[in-house]
Amino acid sequence: MRLKLLLIACLILLPLPSLAADDGYGYPITGSYEATIMGTPAPLMPEFPARMNVRQLVLQVIPDRLKPPIFFYDEGLRCTFAYQKQKAPLVFLIAGAGASNQSTKLISMMKALYQAGFHVITLPSPTHANFIISASQSGIPGDLTEDAADLYRAMEVAWKQVQGDIEVSSFSLGGYSMGAAEAAFVAKLDEERRVFNFRKVLMVNPPVNVYSSAIRIEELLKQIPGGANKQGIFFNKMLSKFSEFYRYGNFVAINDDFLYAIYSERLFSHEQTAGLIGLTYRINLAGMIFASDVMTNSGYVVPKNRVLRSTDSLSDYFLVSTHLSFFDYFNEYFYPYFQKRRPDLTKEAFIESQSLRSIEGYLKSSVKFSAMANENDFIVSKGEIDYLRQLFGERAKIYPRGGHLGNLEYKENMAYMVDFFKE
Amino acid sequence: MMTVTRYHACRMIPALTLMLSLPGCAATRANTAEERPMHSINEFRDQRFADVADPWEGFNRSMYRFNFYFDKYVFLPVVTGYEFVTPGFVQQRISGFYNNLNEVRNLTNSMFQLKGVESATTLGRFLTNSTLGLGGMFDPATKFGLARHDQDFGKTLGYWGASSGPYLVLPIFGPSSLRDTGGLAVDYGISYGIYTAVDPFPNSSNGLAISAGISTLGTVDARHQQSFRYYESGYPFEYYMVRFLYHEKREIETGKAPVE
After folding, report:
1. Dist. CA B13–CA B24, nearest whole Å
2. Are A124 and A74 in a shared domain?
3. How far apart are CA B223 and CA A377, in angstroms?
4. How far is CA B43 from CA A275, A290, A326, in A?
5. Which chain A residues are within 8 Å of B140, Cβ to Cβ?
6. Which of B26, B30, B147 minimises the CB distance to A252?
7. Are residues A131 and A278 in the same domain?
8. I need a surface site. Which of A10, A107, B20, B176 has the fewest CB within 10 A?
């Protein structure tokens, strides 16, 4: 316990003397990759409610959906619903790429908003297997326009399910990372459909263009010796390093103390940290590719027409899917699917459509938006940060550091989020 | 028409029978021949990560699925009922009580591993929490700086050089390995031996019923303390991630570095 306090104290105090003077922002972790992996130390998070009224929703979004036996456990789209007893505004929250409705970051946002008196419904990312299986019309995720339509349908079903139980004064919307970009497209769709009339829309660390952000994440894997195709060797090496550190460090268990020690002792180099982030991303992407391939019977990694039973080994598919890059998915699977339906669609035009720029007129004109971003977020370029500034003006809140989502749970960031939805 | 009826029939089967696999439902697509996928394993020359010896994967996956259904229809409803009728304060005291009983297991295994300081610490914890902590319901020992060291016979075997052996998913207990399953049996044997020697209810004719009640509540409490839910991540390769995390955590905590 004392060790833990000491470590946290080091973590918080050490970088401060140099930083406090210039920007007055208290989030302590300076490195972009390090912040992304470490997130926010618990003492720097806001106080969350001890108890919440919360329940799981399992939604039948697409009636009579046939699910392959390998996904026997998937009983519908899973959303988390936190509700107030009195009349309150309802906020929908969308998870980032590959994340479920219960991802830690999403649940933290939910808790902070619940604390401030909101009803909240969290949704998994359209790139999460549960969404692909239960809520994606095409089964092919990643297109902002189609994902927004799927999300909108899911939100309508969720609302129908709970509207008898709660009183709602208004609707708002939020999302982080890819979920933030999707939130923008959902809001735009809502201007036509008018089911919710979203009052406020918050985008936390959005990519400006999904394609270029994916390129930047793939770049991280290039820092691995031998590149992404040797990620298995790299991972196993990092694992030995991790184990040895534990073994000689006299730790009691794999817990926060241990993880902070990894950071404070700089166990992994900057490049290795980058590689680990890239690998995490690939592991997520693999789940999406596999789920999509099975649902559409496309013969991409699973033989076409093979029916996987619930006890079949997926080991080889796991290895294959984790070795496929975003470019493989995009060029061999994703773009061809859209090109088949729209033969005149060029690749450039398609990439451009996966961007906030494609709806910038709308984003600029609507006062309901705000974007939170970090100067050192590696999924966006300096130019893209400037673009967000220019697009949203005063409604863009740019922090000097935090990496990608590392500072999302920092109390100042959470306070900004809550105030935005309140005002 | 045949297909439609078939699908309907499949969906009407009561949920419990889903524990058996569903080859019947799949018949519609199986008629068409399989085709080679665009990407297959032969393309990649790389080590597998998250790899663990798992020769009984078919059995393990069946058990993994069994545990999912057992949780869903038996275990979790009981745990939820327990959490509903028992105030949070009482739940914490009950957990403390059982965690304190498990210190006996921690102590015997620290001693088996000839770890002097750790054994003394654990003994100190057990004595402190049993007395000042009112039978373990409270944990003053941690405040006095006596950290908990979880030990079991599987770790003892590992400490003395036994490798984990193949991965094994046990019914109800969940992820384990051949070595840890043996360890589990030994730990149960030792507790049973101690229990018989101590004989806490010598004059009661209901001794058996009382001890059955205590171990049932212990099982419920253990599940209550364990937040893991089968398939909750929704990640299609969850089985491998769980297998990997279980295995590595055990390897690391046993004090052995993984094999290159």
Report:
1. 12
2. yes
3. 40
4. 22, 17, 17
5. none
6. B147
7. no
8. B20
Angle subtended by helix axes B178-198 and B103-112, to nearest 10:
110
Chain segment A147-168, per-residue pLDDT in tens: 999 999 999 999 999 999 999 9
Residues A327 and A397 in one domain: no
Using a CB-CB cut-off of 8 Å, the residues of chain B touching A78 are 234
What CATH number should be reported for the domain holding residue A125? 3.40.50.1820
* Boundary of a domain, candidates A319, A347, A375: A347
Domain boundary among A347, A368, A391: A347
- Here the tokens at position A222 are 């290039």
Q: Is the ipTM of this complex over 0.90?
A: no
Can you give the pLDDT at residue B207?
76
* Residue in B7, B30, B49 nearest the CB of A236: B49
The pLDDT score that the predictor gives to residue B31 is 57
Dist CA A128 CA A145 (whole Å): 17
Question: A294 and A408: one domain?
Answer: no
Work out the average pLDDT over B209-238: 92
Minimum distance, in Å, between the CA of residue B208 and any CA atom of chain A: 36
Q: Which domain holds residue A367?
A: 44-210+356-422
Nearest in space to A213 (alpha carbons), one of A174, A184, A186, A179: A179
Closest CA to A323 of B52, B260, B40: B40
Is residue A121 domain-shared with residue A157, that is, in the same domain? yes
CA-based nearest residue to A350, from A362, A364, A332, A334:
A334
Into how many domains does chain A fold? 2
Regions of chain A with pLDDT less than 50: 1-3, 5-21
Please give the model's pTM, rounded to 2 decimal places.
Answer: 0.88
Residue A88 backbone zone (phi > 0: left; psi -120 to 50: alpha; other: beta): beta
Q: Which chain A residues are closer than 8 Å to B50 by Cβ? A: 235, 318
Does residue A12 fall inside a structural domain? no
3-state per-residue secondary structure call for B110-170: HHHCCCHHHHHHHHHHHHHHHHCCCCCCCCHHHHCCCCCCCCCHHHHHHHCCCCCCCEEEE
Q: Exposed, middle or buried by CB within 10 Å (0-12, 13-18, 19+), for A175?
A: buried
Residue A170 lies in a domain: yes
Is the pLDDT at B17 greater than 50? The verdict is no
Rounded to 5 degrees, φ, ψ at B177 are -140, 170
A177 lies in the same domain as A281: no
Closest CA to A388 of A235, A151, A180, A125: A180
Separation CA A374–CA A20 (nearest Å): 17
How many residues belong to chain A? 423
Q: Are A249 and A181 in the same domain?
A: no
Q: Is A333 helix (H, G, I), strand (E, B) or coil?
A: helix
- Beta bridge partners, A90, equal A119, A171
Please choose, from the candidates A114, A52, A54, the residue with its C-alpha nearest in 3D space to the C-alpha of residue A79: A54
On whether residue A9 sits in a domain, the answer given is: no
Same domain, A60 and A121: yes
